[in-house]
Design a protein that fits this description.
The chain has 224 residues and is of the alpha/beta class. It has one domain: Rossmann fold. It contains 7 helices and 10 strands. A hairpin with a 2-residue loop joins strand 1 and strand 2.
């Protein structure tokens, strides 16, 4: 079976005068459709960097990356962005909600990127508000929510357009244990329904929700 994500010899470095410091070294990995993969390793290992490359937020790298059969390494930024919007949802540790928009409006944005009609957008957003039990929060702004509620909205926004892949960067990093468990249970449920999930985590507990762990150290894959 062709992997949904194939990384081959991905490298990223920063130039310092004549020297280079590498963030990633020859990273290769295949991720199959429907897998739940955790990327782990100490701080500075390159975990968030590889996630941002997979998510197509970072274009300054070398190597080969195929996503849903498309050679990302040959695509321009516009084509990468279109691919990301069509197939991916991203959950950031620091939420990244738009402060000037209500919860409802934050959830509507990914649908507007995919040219979903206004009426359909309304019913999809209402469904997700219901599913995440945040109907009562729909007219509030992010600043009026607790950290846990903001992260719940951030996850809801990531899943609202039924993405093929969810990428999550320390998704429970700012939450207390019960809220963190709630988010992880939700990921597990989405994964059982067929969504591919890749999370960066420091937590062994969170990693245990997945099928597989990729360990990074100093930019190298040391275990998969």
């Amino acid at each position: 079976m062709t992997p949904i994500i194939a990384l081959r010899h991905i490298e990223k470095f920063y130039e310092h005068g004549v020297s280079r410091s590498y963030v990633l070294r020859r990273v290769s990995a295949d991720i199959r459709d429907g897998e739940f993969v955790s990327i782990m390793g100490p701080s500075g290992a390159g975990k968030s960097t590889i996630l941002h490359i997979i998510g197509m937020f970072d274009s300054a790298w070398s190597g080969e990356y195929d996503f849903v059969g498309q050679p990302v390494h040959t695509l321009n930024q516009k084509a990468r962005s279109a691919l990301h919007k069509q197939y991916m949802g991203f959950v950031f540790q620091s939420y990244h909600l738009l402060d000037n928009l209500t919860v409802y409006e934050n959830l509507e944005i990914p649908l507007s990127y995919r040219d979903v009609k206004k009426n359909d957008r309304q019913s999809i957003v209402c469904d997700v508000l219901d599913r995440f039990q945040i109907v009562g929060k729909k007219d509030l702004y992010p600043s009026q929510l607790s950290g846990g509620q903001q992260q719940l909205v951030a996850v809801a926004r990531a899943v609202v357009a039924s993405p093929k892949v969810i990428l999550a960067d320390e998704p429970t990093g700012n939450l207390h244990t019960a809220q963190g468990k709630e988010i992880m249970e939700l990921f597990k449920r989405l994964n059982r329904e067929g969504t591919t999930i890749i999370q960066v985590t420091h937590s062994e507990t969170n990693a245990s929700y997945g099928d597989r762990v990729i360990q990074l150290r100093d930019g190298w894959v040391v275990e998969d």
